[in-house]
Every structure is written in structure tokens, then in C-alpha cells.
Design a protein that fits this description.
This protein is an alpha+beta fold. Helix content is 15%, strand content 27%. The chain is elongated and about 95 Å long. The protein starts with a helix and ends in a 54-residue tail after the last helix.
Length: 304
């Protein structure tokens, strides 16, 4: 009889000990990620409550621009996170001495008045062409933080950062080579003081230690601006006023990326459905745009 009572008390003591340890672990999770599930929920809450998403309906609102008033509260040039969905239509170029092909940038509005026509208009049957416009040197805005462009000739993405070093303004860059055509992907940038991290589909692609410190530029963001945009689509720009952690970045993937415009602009072949399961994806002088040699384009778009 006494052995039975003693065993019951041992069981109760054991259950009480397990309960106390569970409470302690929950309290410790405020500073140490001991319980991954609870930690992920905390990360997801901060991501959802502090970030903002733009350009989600590019068919109805094809002008890709974010104004100062629309930015997340507390957005500063030295500490932020950016994610954007991109699909590269084809490798069309603008001929010899071609400019960099614009994808998006935050900074000066050199290309602001040149956002029409665009790829998303239903009545657009060819690539946007221009004549008589004197572009900035190399097609690059005066100030960028960041600037995301396609190489003038290659299927490479180049990310520019204007920084200040030794009381001088310099332009630094990194390159992501061999971007595949007609496969949607999610590009991410995390800027933390003098460190730039580049993510592809929420996986770290490269890290660059900037020589200088990112400078303050104009607050507006522009997508596919000017008369030399890259032949592709951009949508779902997401901004946070702080660097996301590894766990927070992970909450943004994997997920299918669905583009609203199923038919890629100026594509040499009919576009396939744009759903992608991310778990399975492994300088010259200014020139007239009409002198850039559109006839040398690799796409099926007709020059005008």
C-alpha cells in the first residue's frame, strides 16, 4: 500500500517538474530560440506588421512607383530589407554602346517621366521604343540606393549602391550572372550599415562588404522606368525598415510566384503558366535612344 502511494507521489512530482521546465523554456525563448515553432511565429508577426507590399496589381496600375508617403515608417538608407518578384522575358539588348537595362531603383528621378508605354498594357503589342530622348550616361540615374539593372548585353543582374567613403561619393556594385529566362524568382537585398546581402529565392547568394556607407538618396522607388527597361516583369515589391533575420527571410519562402500577366512581353515563344515552386529551383557618352540599334535586338519585337 505504501509503495503504491509513494509511486503516485513520484508520478505527480515528475509531472510537476515537466510542467515547470516547460514554462521555463517558454520564458527563455524570449532571448534564446529554444522552441523553433514559437520563434517562427514571433518572426512572422514582426514581418507582417512592420513591412509593406507594393505593385501587387500591375495590370490595373502599371506605373511602378513608390512615393515617400507610402514608405514604411522609419525607413533609412543604412538599414532596410527589400524583396521583389522578377521574371526575365528574353535577352533583348539595345545594340552597341547599349545602356544598362532598368529593373528598379530608389533614388533620383532621372527616368521618372519616361515610364510610358510599358509592358503591362493590354494594348501593347511590341516593346516600348523611343526616339529623340537624350538618356543619362549609361542609362543610370545620378543617385541610387539601391539600383537594380540588367547588364547591357548579358543575362546578368547588377546591383548598384551609392556610398560615401573618405568624404567622397562612390558607386559600388555586385553582379549576379546567368539569370535564367522565363523562370520567376524572388530577389532580396538586406542593407545593414556597410554590409549588403543578396538573396535569391530567400537563400543567401552573396555578401558584399561595402567600402563606404550607403548614402541618403531621394525616397522614391521606380520600376521598369525609362526607355531602356529590361524585357521582363516586376511585381510585389516588399520593404521593411530594418534588416530581416535569417528566420524572417525564411518566412517569405518557399511559395509559388504567380505573375498576373501570363504572356511575357516580347517573348520569342508563348509563355507557360508563371507558377513556380521555389522548393524545386535549384561607360560611354550619352546617346540618342533611336541610335542604339534596336534592329540588333534578340527579341521578336519590331523596331520603330
Amino acid at each position: 500500500m505504501f509503495e503504491t502511494v509513494e509511486r503516485k507521489w513520484l508520478i505527480l512530482y515528475g509531472l510537476a517538474f515537466v510542467f515547470v521546465m516547460f514554462v521555463v523554456l517558454i520564458l527563455m525563448n524570449k532571448t534564446i530560440d529554444i522552441i523553433p515553432f514559437l520563434s517562427r511565429r514571433k518572426q512572422q508577426h514582426r514581418v507582417n506588421s512592420k513591412g509593406k507590399t507594393y505593385w501587387t496589381n500591375t495590370l490595373q496600375n502599371p506605373i511602378l512607383k513608390v512615393t515617400k508617403e507610402e514608405l514604411p515608417e522609419g525607413f533609412i538608407p543604412e538599414r532596410y530589407t527589400m524583396l521583389v518578384d522578377i521574371v526575365w522575358g528574353n535577352s533583348r539588348t539595345f545594340g552597341t554602346d547599349a545602356p544598362y537595362r532598368h529593373i528598379l531603383h530608389k533614388g533620383s528621378g532621372d527616368l521618372q517621366t519616361l515610364v510610358e508605354p510599358n509592358f503591362f498594357r493590354k494594348d501593347a503589342v511590341s516593346c516600348p521604343m523611343a526616339s529623340g530622348y537624350n538618356m543619362p550616361p549609361n542609362g543610370l540615374p545620378k543617385r541610387m540606393n539601391p539600383g537594380i539593372f540588367a547588364d547591357p548585353y548579358l543575362n546578368d543582374i547588377i546591383i548598384f549602391m551609392d556610398t560615401e567613403y573618405d568624404n567622397k561619393l562612390i558607386r559600388e556594385s555586385v553582379r549576379i550572372p546567368d539569370i535564367p529566362l522565363e523562370i520567376p524568382f524572388r530577389l532580396g537585398l538586406i542593407v545593414q550599415n556597410s554590409t549588403l546581402e543578396v538573396y535569391l529565392n530567400c537563400k543567401l547568394e552573396l555578401t558584399k562588404l561595402l567600402k563606404g556607407r550607403p548614402i541618403q538618396v531621394e525616397p522614391e522607388w521606380y520600376g521598369l522606368a525609362g526607355k531602356a527597361p529590361f524585357a521582363g516583369q516586376v511585381q510585389s515589391l516588399k520593404l521593411w525598415p530594418f534588416p530581416l533575420t535569417v528566420l524572417e527571410i525564411d518566412t517569405q519562402c518557399p511559395m509559388p510566384i504567380e505573375f498576373l500577366n501570363k504572356q511575357l512581353p516580347c517573348s520569342s515563344t508563348p509563355a507557360q503558366p508563371m507558377d513556380m515552386d521555389l522548393t524545386k529551383v535549384s561607360p560611354s557618352q550619352p546617346k540618342q535612344v533611336d541610335e542604339l540599334g534596336y534592329g540588333n535586338s534578340l527579341s521578336v519585337c519590331k523596331s520603330t
